[in-house]
Structures are given as C-alpha cells and as structure tokens.
Amino acid sequence: MIKFYTTLLLVLCSCTAYAQSDFRPGYIVNLAGDTLSGYVDYKESRSNNKFCSFKPSKESHSQQLGVDAIRAYGFKGDKAYEAKQVKTNEEELTKAFIEVLVKGRLSLYLYKARFFVEKDPDQLLELTNTAEEVYVNNTRVMKRSNEHIATLNTLMIDCQDQLNKIEDVSLSQRSLVTLVKNYNQCVAPEENRILKESKKWLVAKVGIAGSANTENLTFTSSDRRLALYDHARFDKVYYPSVGLVLNIVSPRLKERLSLQTEAFYATYDYIGYSNYSSFSEDVYYRNDFALELTSLKLNAAFRYTFIDKATQPYFNLGVSNRLLLNNTASRIQESESGNTIQTSKHSDTFLNKYHMGMMAGLGASYQIFSYRLFSELRYDKGMNIATPPEFSNVSRSLKAGSDTFSLIVGLYFNK
Amino acid sequence: MKLNCSFSLLLAFSLATLLLSCKAKDELTPREYPRMDTGEVTAINTSGATFTGIIRTLGATPVSDHGFTWSTTPHSLVDNSSQISLGPRNEIGPFSATATFAMEADKVHYVRAYARAGEYVVYGPAMPYTSKGSMTPVITGFSPASARRNDQVTITGSNFTQDLNRLTVLFGSTPATIVRATPESIVCMVPYNLQAPQTKITVKLAGKTATTTNNFTLIP
C-alpha cells in the first residue's frame, strides 16, 4: 500500500505542477483594432468565452482581459475567439468570446455547442435544428425543424454548386466547417481562412501496456442463507496483466479530451476462508475456497490530458468490463459436529462470468523519440461480481464487489 | 527538467513494482485437527481395491490412527463401517491400503480416508467407485465348540468386516445376533430360538458365504 501512496504522491506532484497554466504564442486585438502579439493561456474550458489571460512576453505578468477589454484573441496556427453579442438560451443578449471556425465571406462560429454564421457585419445567425415528438398513424416519430438548412440556403444562394450539399449537412463541426469552407472557396477564395486546419479531426494512438495489480474481493449479505459468502474472506492477490491500449482523440475538437479503450489479459488465483454455524448451531462449517481465474478486461474511459508538452499528466474516468475466460471455483467444506469432522468437496462457481465496474486513474505520459511512454495509477471498483447459483432467488441481497489497484506502464507507438 | 526527472522516477518505480509483483503464496487457514483428503481408488478387481488418502495438514494433537472406511453410502463412520486401520502417523503426505473384504460386485461404494487425533475423528471426502467384488470370507475356527442359547461364540478367520449391518451369521438356518466384529473375528450370540443340537455356522458378507467344516453343539 505504501508503494501506491508513494506513486500517487509522485503523480499528483506532476499534475499539480502542470495543471497551472499553458501560455502559448498568440495575440489579442484591442478595441482600437490593433493586434498585439504575446502569449495567451490555452484552455479548453468555458472560461474561454468570458476572458483570456494574456502577457506580452514569457517573463511578464499576465492580465485577464474580458469581452469589454478586447475585440478578439487567438493562438498562432490554432484557435481564435471574437467578442460578439449572442443570445443566451434564455433569449437574453450577452457579449461573449465565441470561437471562430471559418473566417471569410461567410464566417462560422461556435459558442457553447451552438453554431452561428455571419455574412454581414453584426448579423450573427444561429443554426438550429429543433426536434419534436409527433404521432403519425399512432406511431411516435421525431420531427426535425431543419431550420439550419433554410438559413444556409438563404446565405449561400450565390453559390449554386453548394446548394445541393446543404440538404445533407448536419449540425456538427466537421460537417459545417467543410460546407462553409467550400462556399467561401466558391465565392471569395482570397478571404477564406480555416482555423485549426493543421489539426486532425481524429487521431488514434495504439500501444501496449503491462500492469501490476493488487485486488481483493468483498462479500456481505444480511440473508442468513448466504452465510457461506457473507463470512467469506479472500486473501488479497497480486498479479500482472498485459494488454493493448487505444487512445482516440480529436485535436480539432478537443485536444485534451480523449477516449481511452483497453484490453488487459490476466490470470490469477484466489484463496478464501469462510466459517459459520448452522441455523440450529449444532454444526460448525469451515470452508476453503480456491478460485482460478483468467480474465479479459475491456475498459473504456474518458481521459483528460493536462497540457501539450513533453510530459503530459492526465486522469481517466470510465467503466471496466471484466470477462472471465476461465472461472473455476472449488470449495472444501469441513462440517464439525461433536468431535466428528466431515470433509466434502464442491465446485460451485459463484463469480459472474461478466461484470462491470467503475475506474479512475491518474498518470502521466512522456515523449521519447517517436513513442510516448506512460505510467498510471488506477483504482477499479467491480460491482455485482457474484451470483451463487443455489441461491439465485436471494442473491440480490449479496453485495459482492472487488477493489483493484493497478500500476500501469505502457508505450504508445505514436506521439 | 525537474518534471522529466519526476516522470523518470515514476516510470522506474512503476517498472520495479511490475517486475516484483508476484502471486501470493497459497496458505490454508490452520485447524486444530488434521485435514484429510481421499484420493482415487485404483486396482479395482475381483479381490478388492486399493485406496489412497492424504494427510494434508497436521493438527494440534498427534494422529493416533489413520486409514480408510467404506460402505455403500457416502457417510461411512469408523465405528460401524468396514475399515482398514493403519495406526499412528505424524507426518503429512499420501498413504494407501488394499482392501480385500466387504465389497459387492457391480455396486457403487464410497471410501473415505480418516484420522483420529485427540478427541477428533476427521474424514476426507467420500470417493465413489464401482466395486468388482472382494475376497470370500474364510472361517478358520470358532469357540467354544458347544454353548447354551444366548452364550457368546467367537468365529475366527479372515475377510470379515466391522460393518455389522452387512454381516450375517447363521447357526444352521437360524440367524444370530452379532455383538462385534473385525476383519479377523466375529463375536455373536447363540440364537435364543435355536433348536437343532448340531449345526454348522455360516458367515455371509457382500454376496459371498463361508461355512464351518465342524458342527457347533447346542447345550440344552
């Protein structure tokens, strides 16, 4: 346990050091319309819509600039924001920094998962597509307003080539960026500017990993018939596992948020002990459990990575799915009555072949040549892991879970 | 630079933990009594079968006797079932014995290894097997040669059993009450309703029969 706390401390220290700020080369446009180069704090939170932290040089102090202090800000070769009047969901007008996705004859903006277009100055129009449930011949169907198609048709009427493509456009960033980009290319290619164009829509990182795990099982039940399991105490096990990891990220949309998927293979044995008395208390039972397990763990988690530098701390939050490929359980029971001990052998498999859990992890990755090494400390809580077959009707009263701490080390084959 | 150093430390620590992680050693929860296991039954033939057992752990007190007990039910007990006693033993490990008596052909039997230690009698799990039979009981003598009704008579020989329920003793055709028995001797009572002055004594066990060559004489 000390090992884990030490590791946790190390990881936390790294994260704390990195989680503070990430000033990248950028610019601001002041109210007079002058562009000032410097460094802007790179964030992927909603605070981007309220203010930016800017400093003229790396060494100088930063200042927070709100929507009333500057017209726009951005990052070199990356995203940019402009101060605009937008309607809130409550139909109130507010001034906010909205993200520029495409700049040109027709500009495309993003604000809190809502898309806006602007053709004429200060004529910001929201693209909407509301859904409504309606009944047609007693069948419930979703009816979509497709107002965004009407809006885009009106705005793109001067490019006939694009009109037939509008019908298929969805309210997604990729779809709209492509459409608006092509429209600008059609009507005014010299004004066309695509933000974050150098960033890929989708990047998949494949890697291998190994982990050292410590795990224990817990069983509790208030039902007397489940005394065998309620009193079961299993020794903590230590086992290694190996696996494949796949990290999918969309740098164009959110470069810090990614989907982590994994498959880990492990084989390990449990021994356990349970003792209890019969209802009439004239027989005392002692049980030794032996479990031989081979598991394939399929995990899926959201990963938030802290900054874009050589060493990147991150944390994961997701679900684990354990499939027991081998689930052999044997039990030796000794029944003591008077001075007579009778031994019997049982092979009652009570662990579920499939069970789910929740997991959270803290780690860091480090770029080395064209690879990325990573190390992570993880906690996994397995739930409803057992259903004793002979008591399936009362097994709901059995609280069976597992607690797993893992130390994972791995390597992504690409950066 | 400091941060890269932290990462290196973390990585090195992780790798060390990964390499040093190992499976926990299997250790059973200790008991006050010895723990027994019954092994496979081998060499099953018309003369009997060979039993195997294991003393898995020793308890707080020494094993004063160990062996096997068997019958046609899974819950045979040393005091009233067929039994082979191998005496004291104070080490863990396997043991075996060949049984030549009290087994009926083509019938499922159950054998259990056992050990006595202090006040405990510990039985291993019942191991089922289908017998091919066992040796015929042999009577080598009996005494006294003459006795009154309800007197005790001791029959000596081999391939008898401790299991009184499976053993039958007849004086002529009149069944006798058996007091106690071992594989080598049977103590029974002269039937209270025996009429014939001269009878042969017959022992029946597991479908096989042995009869004395000499007559028993009833003292009126």
UniProtKB/TrEMBL annotation, chain A:
This is Outer membrane protein beta-barrel domain-containing protein. It comes from Pontibacter amylolyticus. The keyword Signal applies. InterPro entries: Beta-barrel_OMP_2. The keyword Ion transport does not apply. Coiled coil: none annotated. Residues 206-384 form the Outer membrane protein beta-barrel domain. Residues 1-19 form the signal peptide. Keywords: Signal.
TrEMBL record, chain B:
It comes from the Bacteria. SMART domains: IPT. Residues 136-219 form the IPT/TIG domain. Gene3D superfamilies: Immunoglobulins. Pfam families: TIG (PF01833). Keywords: Signal. InterPro entries: Ig-like_fold, Ig_E-set, IPT_dom. Residues 1-24 form the signal peptide. The keyword Protein biosynthesis does not apply. This is IPT/TIG domain-containing protein.
